[in-house]
Amino acid sequence: MGFRFCALIALVPLFYSIQFCGVVSGYHESSVLVTRRADELLPQISPSSAPMPFLPLLAPSPLTPFTNMTSPKLSGQCVLNFTGLSDMMSLTSIDCMAVFAPLLANVVCCPQVEATLVALLGQSSRYTNSLALNGTVATLCLSDFEQILVGQGANDSLSNICSIHPSNLTAGSCPVSETSEFESTVDSSSLLAACGKIDSVNECCEQVCQNAILDAAQKLAKKDYNLQSIDGSHVLSDHSSRINDCKSIVLRWLGSKLEPSRAKDVLRGLSNCRINKVCPLNLPSIHHVIQGCGPESNQTACCSSLESYVSHLQRQSFVTNLQALNCATALGVKLRKSNITNDVYSQCHISLKDFSLQESGCLLPSLPSDVVFDKSTGVSFLCDLNDNIPAPWPATSQLPVSCNKSSTAVNIPALPAAASGISSLKATFSNSLLCLVTAVTALILM
């Protein structure tokens, strides 16, 4: 038998219920029900408060908003073959589903949007010999892309949410955009060997594919590069911009050589390396925490101020387990620099899940994941329920170096092995508690 808990959260103007479920051996089955209106989405309670027992109950059936498709009005002038990548487009619309898109933007929605656009441009180059669009066609294609996704239930503000612009579909400042010139400039066989399939667990530290992409981008950026025409103060920034734009060209070329499903895996794996290096949360002023945890304060006042601060962080978005670790470290470093040297995380029982959205603390896996829609069970996404991993207090006032295998991250026993990039994927899923988070609609338009 296992202990099963659930948290039910209502969102408006559409009431979406999100059901969190996890299993821990050794306890009888029970569940928890917590309901909140939109303006009470994140209750003012201690982040470490335990859920109260409640009888399990069935979630309402998913309703029509997820299945009603509308016919988009397309320009008819876009060269991208959206139909050829219909499965990837459908997955993107689900990953960016209306209400959930802002909450899953950093980890799921925007990486999938970017990967789909890269794959579309790559597949198109098979017939056009071009890995980029001109400005006019890019504007039309981006509009068509959004219209199709919205027609399938995606959020209608993806450009704003994901900061996608028509320029993202052009060559930018990269001097090479034609496939033939690309392949005559870079070692395409070595590039494909390094990036045809990546190790999602270890790529972020070993950077086999990332280094191959950088090498190719640097070769492209040097083409027709005239330093004499650029002011000395702008040489470095201009070259850096060219390399970044050429990286996009390299990714599109990879998208042209790989089957869509393989391209998606590679592109999402690479984006996760970038995602998991940082804390995506906005850390506001810690003034009140400094006051509450100062030398004249007691533990009760300190914990109250810290928990209040963390509760505001919980209003932002879902994060991965590694992002939560980064956020905990970043906040701890800010506190240490303000002369709060005692381990207030331990004193106040702050855990990694306290840095994610909602009081149930769903931490998304550090490996790429997608939202799943099923007509009978609703919408679901995977949570990594390493429930009460204590947030590590930084030993110094400096942020740790990424991929340092002797760093704090790998000294947390309960953290999934694959999340630290030093063990096998199989071990990760067998040793960590995974939860299927089921979200269903209750359609009440306000």
What tags apply to this protein structure?
446 residues, alpha+beta, 4-stranded antiparallel sheet, two-stranded antiparallel sheet, globular, disordered C terminus
Describe, in plain words, how this protein is organized in 3D.
- β6 (372-374) and β7 (378-384) form a beta hairpin.
- 41% of the residues lie in helices and 8% in strands.
- The chain has 15 helices and eight strands.
- The chain is globular and about 70 Å long.
- α1 runs antiparallel to α2 (101-128).
- The chain has a four-stranded antiparallel sheet with strand order 2-8-7-6. Strands 1-3 form a two-stranded antiparallel ribbon.
- The protein has 446 residues and is α+β, with helices and mostly antiparallel strands.
